[in-house]
Amino acid sequence: MAETAAVSVASPLLEIVIRKLGSGIWKEMGLASSVKKDVEKLQSVLETIGDVLEDAENRAISDKPLHGWLRKLRDAAFDADDVVDEFQTEALRQKIEGNNCITRKVSDFFSLNNSIIFHHKIARKVKEIRERLDLISEERLKFHLRERPIPERPLERETYSFGVESEIYGRDDDKEEIINFLVHVDTDEDISVLPIVGLGGVGKTTLAQLVYNDRRVEEQFELRMWVCISENFDIPRIIRAIIERVTGTNCELSDIEMMQSLLREKLRERRFLLVLDDVWNEEEAEWERLKPLLRGGKKGNKIIVTTRSERVARIMGNSAPLRLQGLSIDDCWTLLRQRAFGLGRAEETPRLVKIGKEIVQKCGGLPLAAKALGSLMSSKRGEVEWLAVKNSEIWKLPTKETGILPALRLSYDHLPSHLKQCFAYCSLFPKDFSFHRERLIQLWIAEGFIQPSDDNMDLENIGSQFFNNLLWWSFFQDAVWDSDGNVIVCKMHDLVHDLACCVKGDEAIIMEAGKDKSISHRCRYSSVDFNNGEASECLQLAYKTKKLRSLIFLPCSSVVHIREFAFYVVSNLTYLRVLDLHGTGLKRLSSRISRLKHLRFLDLSETLIKALPDSITSLYNLQVLNLSYCHNLKELPKDMRKMRNLRHLLIVGCCCLTHTPPKLSQLSNLRTLPMFAVGEEDGCSIVELQDLNLIGSSLEIRNLHKVKDPKEAMQANLKAKANLQSLTLSWKRYWASSPTPSSDVFERLLPHPNLKELTIEGYMGIRLPTWMARAKQVSTLFSDLVELRLWGLKWCEHLPPLSQLPLLKRLDISGMDALRKIEEDGGSRCVSLEEFRLTEMPELEEWRVTPTTESFPHLRSLVILSCPKLMVQPCIPSSVEDLQISGNQMLLSAGSIGGLSKLKSLWISNCGVSSKSGWWGGLQYLTALQCLEIKYCDELNRLPEGVMYLSSLRTLSLSDNRNLKSLEGGRREPLFTALCSLTIMNSYAMAALPEWVWGLNSLQFLSLLFL
Question: Strand (E) positions, 308-399?
């Protein structure tokens, strides 16, 4: 790609170094006067260069020599940042460890931490980098750059609506053509393949998504699967992806024969729609290998292929391809106009509309270009700025040479410099990669792309604004949102990814095992793809990248053992800021990890590691330590209190980790701490939580039975932790034979009212604290609560006033042995409940709700297990779609279920209800029921009559009903002709199956065991 396509900016990097030099830390380190002078000169020369950078970066778009000068400057600025970071780290070390170079013992003279040796080494490095930058500064004179301070760009405060476009413009006819193809069943073809062909950015994927989610298509196919192919047409990966879409679970198989067999089984006799998105591979043999594996379903199976290649369309399609054309000028203008004008953006004037329509003509009919330009124009306030975009020289650059759309180049060049480097960093990840917002922001922070603002805004919040701005400017797409309106995951369009790669140039590389690649000495960022090779091949490349700042292992389809590679990394790549080894087979981390003194981000999640070396606690700059789902991890280093910059300690899913290190209160920057285990050792009490008020997301406090003094619970100061969304208070004292006086401790664990999820586990007191028992306090404190779990409160006799929780959606009560009655004015405010679980409640007799029009209008899932004495008044809400009942004979004897017209899944176990019970009488009215499972019902001697009338039933499972003799249910032939799965197990009294079983044409799975 041509170097003039885009410029990787140097100004943010220089600003970081200047800020560090201006912090004054180096003045406190006792450096020699000559070194101080070099530092001052270094700061001065950087400021001098910084004065001309804005002009240089603007002109470098079309000036190749100037572009080369900027590359040379960036390379030197990286090295300067490394040097400055070194003595900042040394200052931090001395502050934490209390080192004093004058009083140090002679025996420590040759240690790595010797201050005299360090000062000598840093003096040499500062002098070298200062002389190097002097030459670069002199070289700038020949370009006659204008000296002008870089204006401070205020952080954008504007908020946007990021939802999917309200309409997909100009595609109605194309949409209907595809839907007609899909709903038409061709009896001559078991699989029909429709290619959608068009330029990148023309909207192929968007159109396929629109069709895929259309109601008519949903009704036509039993299975719908979407697989993104991109440039890697890897058949095992594709098969695994299809299986995972069908089953909804991860496919752990690695043997290709077993995967093929499972795929055929899952697709057999089912009508499916498969979308293969973004196919590049033009090897016909690969498609011929995959195609037979997709056969065997019903007639009318359809495949949609989106591709830029006409050859791919000819190879894969057996239907005439849909060649997607660009949008009309009017449709493109509508897209641009949506984004360009609005509250807080440009004012729509006749003159701007005229200029905008002229700009639109340069979009080439591509929706991606129109949206990107619309976002760009939203930041332009007047006619002069709009004309500058329209008349930009970038429109004259040859797109064919660079592969980059001019509209995207323009959008990038008009980004603030702080966003340019965040965007360019995304080139480390492959096309179609799913970016997790929080993780990407953590990486940006680790690399120094996000600096503190003047108003002391939290770095993560600044990062969120950066992310949202890139989303608004169309650099991200396919966003997935949470219930609070925040993006969780997003992707990049292929053309945008090409731009990111173009910007980064040889500063970033994806090392692919099995492929020879040269690597530049300027390379600072790298990711590693082991999918097609061994770690040793990438090790050879890594030897050439000793100045790497990021090394990221990409998700791999199998566990990679990288012991040798990991040892090399921690021994030699000492400039790393980011090291991501997640998902590898790593069992042990070398103690040499302490050499990575610049490290900010370390991801060891989903590895086999059992313990961390104590030396890791000397990583004073570390901000993120991710150990999530390290199932073998048993302990953390005791001196973690020294890691003062740690912001995120991720230990979710570490099932063997039972203790947290002492003195965690000294980690005052912590934002993430999923688990805190109270201990009796010094520095392990609950008081350690006192000042950790920045903790967000979720926190589980374990071993609360070890808190003896209520004052300590008060000092934990939970009410000050306003960022917490989920809190778990765990005593885990299920074995207690009598109540324990722990209510005073519980009373003082008052949380902040921002909580959305609360779990109480193992509390052995009789009474709940007043803040959970009094209606007025509950309504104030828990007005935002969405989920409440009460587990193992063995001696507690009362529930909180649940009707005071207006937003409660999920309620889970289990193991409250002393509770006899649930009595609520449920119709007044408790109307949001969607899921209700009652389990292991041996004395519960009544669930009494004051009847209204409908007490729980939104209840979708009701689970009642092992509540043998329970009677429900009034009847089960008619909104329920999933009902599970076990061990409740009295409940099933109370009446019929005929009113549950929306019920889709019914699970009955160990209820002792005979076939003649009136409770079964309403079965025939469950017209929506798709899944029925009956287990351990010894009173059942034949299939209840109503079952035979269930025309929508797809799955029927009868297990361990020891006296079940017959499947006859009052009709000779059942109505459930759509039944796909029938399981009968351990029904020893059954002599034979009725004839109708063998006449079920849709039956795909039949399991008969011990009949």
Answer: 322-323
pLDDT in tens, 873-897: 656 788 899 999 998 766 666 556 7
**C-alpha–C-alpha distance, residues 443 and 451, integer Å:** 13
Pairing label, strands 477-481, 981-985: unpaired
Look at residue 201 and tell me if it is in a domain: yes
Rounded CA-CA distance 523/510 in Å is: 11
How many structural domains comprise the chain?
5
What sign for the dihedral angle of Cα 909, 913, 914, 916?
negative
Residue 757's contacts (CB-CB under 8 Å, 6 or more residues apart) are 698, 725, 726, 727, 785, 786, 787, 788, 789
Q: How many CA atoms lie within 13 A of 901 on its CB side?
A: 1
Asked if residue 375 is part of any domain, the answer here is no
Residues 902 and 935 in one domain: yes
In a domain, 696, yes or no: no
Q: Which pLDDT tens digit goes with each residue over 947-992?
A: 888 888 888 998 888 888 888 766 667 777 778 888 888 877 777 7
Instruction: Indicate if 531 and 595 belong to the same structural domain.
Output: yes
| Domain extent at residue 299 | 172-323
Q: Are residues 439 and 527 in the same domain?
A: no
587 plus 473 within the same structural domain: no
What's the confidence (pLDDT) of residue 148? 59
Q: Do 520 and 633 have their domain in common?
A: yes
What pLDDT sits at residue 915? 64
Q: CA 607, CA 632: separation in Å to the nearest integer?
A: 8
Asked whether residue 518 falls in the same domain as residue 665, the answer is yes
996 within a domain of the structure (yes/no) = yes
CATH of the domain at 924: 3.80.10
Last residue of a domain, one of 295, 323, 351: 323
Whether 201 and 129 share a structural domain: no
Nearest CA-CA partner of 739 in 775, 763, 774: 763
Q: Is the pTM value of this prediction over 0.85?
A: yes
Q: Which of 473, 503, 533 is the last residue of a domain?
A: 503
Q: pLDDT digits over 389-436, tens only?
A: 998 878 877 666 566 888 898 899 888 888 999 999 999 999 989 999
* pLDDT of res. 341: 87
How many Å apart are CA 880 and CA 864, to the nearest integer? 13
Question: What per-residue confidence (pLDDT) applies to 920?
Answer: 73
Contact 17, 104 (CB under 8 A): no
Q: Are 460 and 453 in contact (CB under 8 A)?
A: no
Which residues of the chain are under the pLDDT cut of 50? 1-5, 99-111, 150-166, 826-828, 851, 853
pLDDT of residue 308: 92
Give the distance from CA 234 to its chain's centroid.
Answer: 24
Q: Residue 107's pLDDT is what?
A: 40
Do 421 and 559 belong together in one domain?
no
Q: Are 14 and 50 in contact (CB under 8 A)?
A: yes
